[in-house]
Design goal:
With 1109 residues, the protein is α+β, with helices and mostly antiparallel strands. Helix content is 20%, strand content 16%. Strands 1, 14, 15, 16, 17, 18, 19, 20 and 21 form a 9-stranded mixed β-sheet that branches. Strands 2, 5, 7, 13, 22, 24, 25, 27 and 28 form a 9-stranded mixed β-sheet that branches. Helix 7 runs parallel beside helix 13 and helix 15 (856-873) packs across helix 18. The longest helix has 23 residues, at 876-898. Mean pLDDT is 74; it is low at 1-357. The structure holds zinc ion (ZN).
Length: 1109
């Protein structure tokens, strides 16, 4: 029954080693500073040679997996009872925890368990001199003289002694004023009595006599973090915070995320401030309300060439479930009710029997060979976890935090049976317009596992809360008793921290050893002949000039520039100079900084010099004949320049680097592009870029790569510089200023977003989950510092992440589990902030329940990331097989274990009905396709995007949305800012859906095609395109003219709305039959057969054959 290749969903204990390396990470035990052993680089290492892969390995299986205790595993400290895991559901009338006791007021702090991250030495330390700041070689000549004239190249051949690294030049602005700003809206209706927050009163456990006691700062705990504060206990009433620095500073590194942020305890309570975080420039806006789509139209559909059994049926059964709720959580489909009596009461057979009567929509049986019209008419709505209504309402938004299975299997063996991958998809730093921000002297966290208090904890009474991850009972700090929203006392469960699944804390600055790092921007620009030919330098300089005041930052922001061809050019921008000075270093073998103090300057103080430079740069190299590119040395220089402060490097490269370290050779054979054989050279040619990226990561430097090239550049090697330093990769494959105006516009728009979007510096992200679950393989751009801690020198609002999970211990007796992602970062304003997302999911013990909660898009997104890894570590064909088998195995499991009444056909539960289609789409995606000519860099870039883009954009890359747009109406339109946004129905990706009389718009994520039929409605041609007839449609049309017609306004509103929803700028191509781009458009017709790939129907037959074996 199960297929031979790749169908093993053993992603837990007992399986094979993870393709990405073992979970156990020796690097955890040693500081991964510069010089740490690369071979210890663990989970995220597609380059690493895979362990022997037994035949029949699956996509998510992997080798001798040695389970390590989950981080959240709690060891009861001496003298404290080990808490059993009680049920998580609605509280019973008595405490589920037998006799939870208040911890003794001065108890010994919980010992640090062996797997705790607290005891690990910090990976790096603020203020520590970076290794690159080491003295120069002996015999270095004295510092070179500054040239008298600007832009006169000074060829310096050896190293002066670098000045000590500048820490922060400008003063650090103190903590935000603790003004209480009640801007935060009421967090919602007060909890119904059935809420988890209901107090459970136990007769045997009187409330603490001394309410201050639990709050008392524990000297023992303070040891690693600083001195215990002194002073009287906090008063009940909020008073202004201490102005002086009464509390000794504490080290504030990434470890602080894991560390204890103590209560000052000096009697001064800081009133809480709530305000809304500033929104990003473009993506601002509330999480888009999921609007109901237009009423589904019956799509008459002909399938002439298909066998008789394969007939189009009415879409009617699909209508109601796919209509998104108007509010994210308000009235999510409740058709599927989890039995509250306990999971053990529901057996698969019972669920199967119920199919005939009260089948939840998610489990409605769909015969894929018969039902053709499976796409939801509007935007896809992820399934809503089956939780009590009040928790459902409060749960984390699926755009931010999402699970492949919204019902978590009770055991790993049950998960293995389902053959569905278990993992999380995150978009942790997404721009949000509604983000509660809390300034509080006490950030309430579990004393055992450091989980932040969240909506899914249980209050045992007013003074104690039980952690939902490790089940430890914690004290409610005194300050928490005051609710700044209601301005009342004694309602800790109404605090914003327990009313919002997404929240941000401002860490009190008194607890910092040194100020958070300033925003530091370094631009590294290719100025070779090739680069100048593209004309990109104009755009970069112009864009920077226009947005220089919008760069996120404060009075400490620094900026610097490096240009390079065969030599490296630095720019002295120090205040007081008449003009910028260019310093050329030609010794690229041993790169050094000519005047280390003046190359990175304060943006505010030196803005005029910076502007002068930006105005001159494009002309300075206008006549260059230098063709060589020393990218590697330029990156080394950038690293040296930023290693003292950390910051962001933006690299612009236009060709294959061919000089100095990191030089690359072409590895692409154009004749092999369409080869059906396996694709070679998906892994890097050198480890130079990865090693340098890890050095950068250790110094809080991230590198973003902009690749603008018509030639092969070996992106597989170059992208490592961004992948491991938590940067981003941008790729403009045919960038040319004169010949590709649409590409220029796209680059301009992307740059504007890039320069002005929010940035988080020196960040770490930790993902915690309820005891029993364990997180392994991570996907995205970062360095894995320890088992669950990602190092993110920069975090940007457009980055997505995915993780795979396994179930280490049976989740028996649990009704729900929780996941918490905590992102600790320094804002561009110098605040240390912690953004916390918490998601709660029910635990189930039947296969049918697991299937009912499957989120097909999240599953597809996770599989795509896993397949990228597989392509690199094994082979593309292996990855393709594994993806195909993923759909076969899950449908086989469904057929054999969930369905009780066998029927002919290829059967899927309604919630997975799109699974085979999405898998086929992945097989035809640029990243994984075979048989179609695909440039290697294009393929590698698609793989990069699949790994680090948020799911919404990944899905458009995989399965574009097709709309008919020549007959747009306002019926069912969205109304946004008094603009009506038409909502045409999503069409199947088949040529059969096209009509010569129509115009069709295909949204493929980073590109939008507008296909014009040969006999297109003349009204559309004149009123929207402004041309008299079909023949007059220009060959290279990339904009819609602004015509004063209703049709034009509607069409532009629709395209504009699609574009506004993503952080990058999708280019628009208007195409007709003769257009060269028609082929690209047609390649996205996933349901159709091509010379090298199956049609959707053929693919279904193949799957059916395997399932029925
Ligand atoms: Zn805990």
């Amino acid at each position: 029954m199960s297929s031979n290749t790749g169908f093993n969903s053993q992603n837990g204990p007992g399986g094979q080693p993870y393709a990405n390396g073992p979970l156990q990470n020796p690097a955890v035990l040693q500081p991964p500073g510069p010089g740490y052993n690369m071979s210890h680089q663990p989970p995220y290492n597609p380059m690493q040679a895979k362990g022997p892969m037994p035949p029949g390995t699956g996509l998510y299986n992997s080798g001798p997996y040695q389970p390590i205790p989950p981080v959240s595993s709690y060891q009861a400290p001496p003298g404290q009872p080990m808490l059993n895991r009680p049920p998580m559901g609605p509280p019973q009338s008595t405490s589920p925890c037998p006799g939870p006791r208040m911890p003794p007021a001065h108890a010994t702090p919980p010992p640090v368990s062996a797997n705790s991250y607290y005891q690990h030495p910090p990976a790096w330390q603020y203020g520590a001199l970076p290794p690159m700041g080491a003295p120069p070689p002996i015999g270095a000549p004295p510092p070179m003289a500054t040239p008298p004239l600007a832009f006169v190249g000074n060829h310096v051949t050896s190293s002066p002694s670098p000045a000590p690294p500048q820490a922060t030049s400008a003063g650090y602005s103190a903590a935000p004023s603790p003004v209480f700003n009640n801007a935060m809206q009421s967090p919602g209706p007060s909890l119904p009595p059935t809420s988890l927050h209901r107090y459970t009163h136990e007769g045997s456990d009187p409330p603490p006599k001394n309410p201050m006691a639990p709050h008392t700062y524990q000297p023992g705990m303070a040891a690693p973090y600083g001195h215990p504060p002194a002073g009287p206990p906090p008063s009940m009433r909020p008073t202004p915070p201490p102005m002086g620095n009464a509390t000794p500073p504490l080290p504030f590194g990434p470890e602080t995320d894991a560390g204890h942020i103590p209560t000052p305890g000096n009697g001064a309570q800081v009133p809480n401030r709530f305000d809304h975080l500033e929104t990003g420039p473009k993506m601002a806006g509330p999480l888009p309300p999921q609007q109901p789509g237009p009423p589904a139209r019956h799509m008459g559909l002909s399938y002439p060439s298909l066998p008789p059994g394969y007939q189009n049926t009415s879409a009617s059964p699909m209508h109601h479930p796919m209509h998104a709720p108007t509010q994210p959580y308000s009235h999510a489909p409740q058709s599927y009710q989890q039995p509250s009596a306990g999971p053990s009461q529901l057996s698969p057979s019972l669920a199967g029997l119920s199919l005939q009567s009260q089948t939840p929509e998610a489990l409605r049986v769909v015969n894929l060979l018969q039902e053709r019209n499976l796409l939801p008419p509007g935007p896809f709505t992820p399934p809503t976890p089956c939780l009590p209504k009040d928790l459902q309402k409060i749960n984390c938004h699926p755009e931010v935090f999402r699970s492949t299975l919204t019902s978590i299997p009770q055991t790993q063996s049950l998960l293995n049976k389902a053959k569905l991958p278990l993992g999380l998809l995150l978009h942790p730093f997404k721009d949000l317009s509604q983000l509660p921000v809390v300034t509080s002297s006490t950030i309430v966290r579990c004393r055992s596992c450091r989980t932040y208090i969240n909506p899914f904890v249980t209050f045992l009474d007013q003074r104690r809360w039980k952690c939902n991850l490790c089940y430890r009972v914690n004290d409610v700090p005194e300050e928490f008793m005051y609710n700044p929203v209601s301005r009342s006392y004694g309602e800790p469960h109404k605090r914003p921290e327990v009313q919002n699944a997404t929240i941000e804390f401002i860490a009190p600055s008194e607890y910092m050893l040194r100020p958070p790092q300033p925003a530091v921007y370094l631009f590294v620009l290719d100025v070779s002949h090739n680069a100048v030919e593209t004309g990109y330098l104009d755009v970069v300089c112009q864009s920077l000039l226009e947005n220089i005041n919008a760069l996120p930052g404060d009075s400490r922001t620094k900026i610097g520039f490096i240009t390079f061809d065969s030599t490296i050019h630095f720019y002295n921008l120090q205040e007081g100079l008449a003009q910028p000075q260019m310093l050329i270093v030609s010794d690229i073998e041993d790169i050094f900084l000519p005047t280390p103090d003046s190359l990175l300057v304060n943006l505010n103080e030196c803005k005029e010099l910076v502007q002068d430079l930006l105005k001159s740069l494009p002309q300075m190299f206008g006549k260059t004949m230098e063709t060589q590119s020393a990218l590697g040395p330029a990156l080394q220089a950038a690293f040296k320049l930023l290693s003292a402060t950390g910051g962001r490097v933006s690299v612009f490269q236009t060709q294959l680097p061919n000089l100095g370290v990191g030089a690359l050779k072409s590895r692409e054979d154009p004749n092999q592009r369409a080869s059906a054989k396996d694709i070679q050279n998906l892994s890097p040619a050198t480890d130079f870029y990865k090693k340098l990226a890890l050095d950068c990561s250790g110094q809080q430097v991230a590198v973003d790569l902009f690749l603008l090239s018509t030639q092969y550049c070996d992106l597989a090697s170059l992208a490592c510089i961004s992948r491991y330093s938590a940067g981003s990769v941008y790729y403009y494959p045919s960038y040319q200023q004169q010949h590709n105006p649409a590409g220029v516009e796209c680059f301009q728009k992307d740059l504007k977003r890039y320069l002005t979007r929010k940035i988080g510096l020196e960040a770490v992200m930790r993902i915690r989950c309820t005891k029993g679950l364990s997180i392994h393989t991570f996907h995205g751009n970062f360095f894995v510092r320890s088992t669950d801690l990602l190092s993110l020198p920069n975090v940007n609002p457009d980055a997505g992440f995915a993780v795979q999970m396994s179930i280490e211990e049976n989740l028996v007796d649990m009704q729900s589990v929780s996941f918490q992602a905590a992102l600790l970062y320094t804002s561009s304003k110098g605040e240390r902030r912690i953004r916390v997302h918490t998601m709660c999911l029910p635990v189930v013990n039947s296969l049918s329940d697991i299937f009912a909660g499957a989120d097909v898009q999240a599953i597809t997104g996770l599989l795509a990331s896993m397949a990228v890894d597989r392509s690199v570590t094994a082979s593309l064909s292996d990855a393709r097989d594994a993806m195909t088998n993923a759909s076969i195995d899950s449908l086989t499991s469904y057929r054999t274990s969930v369905l009780t009444i066998q029927q002919p056909g290829l059967l899927a539960p309604a919630c997975l009905r799109l699974f085979p289609l999405y898998i086929l789409a992945l097989l035809k995606q640029k990243a994984f396709r075979t048989g179609t000519s695909t440039r290697l860099d294009d393929r590698v870039f698609a793989m990069c995007q699949l790994k680090y883009q948020p799911l919404a954009y990944v899905m458009l890359m995989i399965h574009p949305a097709l709309y008919r747009v020549d007959d747009l109406t306002d019926e069912g339109a969205l109304n946004i800012s008094e603009r009506a946004i038409p909502q045409p129905r999503v069409q199947q990706l088949s040529v059969e859906k096209l009509s010569r009389e129509g115009a069709f718009l295909m949204d493929a994520g980073s590109v939008i095609y507008l296909w014009i039929g040969r006999n297109c409605n003349p009204n559309f041609l004149t009123q929207v395109l402004g041309v008299p007839n079909y023949a007059a449609v220009p060959q290279n049309m990339n904009i819609l003219p602004e015509l004063d017609t209703a049709e034009s306004q509607r069409t532009r509103a629709f395209v504009g709305w699609l574009r506004e929803q993503r952080p990058f700028f999708p280019i628009l191509h208007v195409i007709r039959d003769e257009s060269p781009l028609k082929a690209s458009f047609m390649q996205n017709m996933i349901e159709d057969r091509t010379e090298s790939a199956l049609s959707y129907y053929e693919f279904l037959l193949h799957v059916q054959q395997q399932v029925s074996k």
